[in-house]
Design goal:
With 97 residues, this protein is an alpha+beta fold. A 5-stranded mixed beta sheet has the order 1-2-3-4-5. The protein is globular, with a radius of gyration of 13 Å. Helix 1 links the parallel strand 4 (38-45) and strand 5. The chain has a domain at 9-50. The longest helix has 15 residues, at 55-69. It is 25% helix and 32% strand.
């Protein structure tokens, strides 16, 4: 995780069904759908102003850590999240079989 973003809070915006990370006034988000014990991560979006700064990757890492800490199983639908998990197979433990 980018050390600059480590102290920034991950926000679970239940009204928008977003996990959010705000950096320099811009908010990156992951759209999710939730059922008891299971979350589908559908789409990741980061504003162009944050491109190339590792914000989306940090958002994914913080979201996966939240899911792990809160005992959720994951259905990764977003291609960015699928690619991240392929590069970091330790997160496969969260993925629904």
């Amino acid at each position: 995780m980018n050390a600059d973003y480590e102290p920034l809070p991950l926000i679970k915006n239940t009204d928008e069904s977003h996990f959010e990370l705000t950096v320099d006034g811009y908010t990156a988000f992951i759209l999710y759908k939730e059922r008891p014990g299971k979350i589908w991560l559908i789409h990741t979006e980061s504003p162009p102003e944050l491109a190339g700064r590792g914000v989306a990757t940090t958002l994914i890492e913080k979201t996966l850590a939240y899911l792990d800490e809160n005992h959720f199983k994951l259905v990764p639908l977003c291609p960015m999240i699928v690619a991240y998990i392929k590069r970091h197979p330790e997160w496969n433990r969260l993925v629904v079989e």
